[in-house]
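Quick entry between incubations.
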Amino acid sequence: MATDPIHQFQIQKLVPIEIGGLDFSFTNSSLFMALTVAGASAFLILSTRGRGLVPTRWQSAAEMTYEFVASTLRDSAGSEGMRFFPFVFSLFMFILVANLWGMFPYFFTVTSHIAITAAMSMAVILTVIVYGLWRNKLRFFKLFVPSGVPKVLLPFITLIEILSFISRPISLSIRLFANMLAGHITLKVFAGFVVTLSSLGFVGILGAILPLVAAVALTALEFLVAALQAYVFAILTSLYLNDAIHPGH
Amino acid sequence: MEAEAAKFLGAGIACIGMGTAGIGLGHIFGNYLAGAIRNPAAADGQFGRLIFGFAVTEALGIFSLLVALILLFG
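Done. Structure below.
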């Protein structure tokens, strides 16, 4: 049993599969992504199976989740943005359930790898660019030229706006990845303190109560961060989609 | 100076970034509380924006932590 905080992020091949020299193994990451899809689908499908006009508690929870994401997207991107609702809702549910699965002891946190979060972030930015160009043709580049700017400053402002647009996929992916990574490393570090202190005799065991309380508090914080990061990813996606649909500030 | 020592020093300096992110967060929540005490009825309507502002500011502090972790463990 490893006691360093980095060991939890190692990818382990559960079922090694190789096709044409490429590695398609079923890893612990794949297992938990499958569990994420299964968990989200089970929650949504089984809760709403009764289709009661007066909802049960589970159905109410599913409906509140739907309404939460729908109102976020509608407020940010307008009624035209609702065509992206399946995309945004899928992102929200995937990130939320993946983060929550990672909170169980010994389970793997899918979103703590930059590969996963960068793929989702690239999907969002490519959707923004492709839909923005297809829908608005060249008016899309009005995004980088805000109105009401003196002509003298225009080149500099445009350059800064372009750089800020390029930083969007980077910050979107790294925000989720770093939050999950940092949170889980901190949890394991405090857990390691409990073990190290307990090995120092009776006084050590008394002292080990402090990092234990800290670990409990951090776990509560991690649950909050798990839900919060899913919400922030969804709302930023909605805002970027609004830029694609209605370019120009 | 050896590379190992420089890495530890860099990780310590990166913690300054986390401190400044803390200042920003205190600013956001302080302003929210000041407004909420003046106009409690309007406070709940802005709670979503508060949480969003918290998350994007916290992100920069976490980027700084990421730099420190990469220096220590990468």
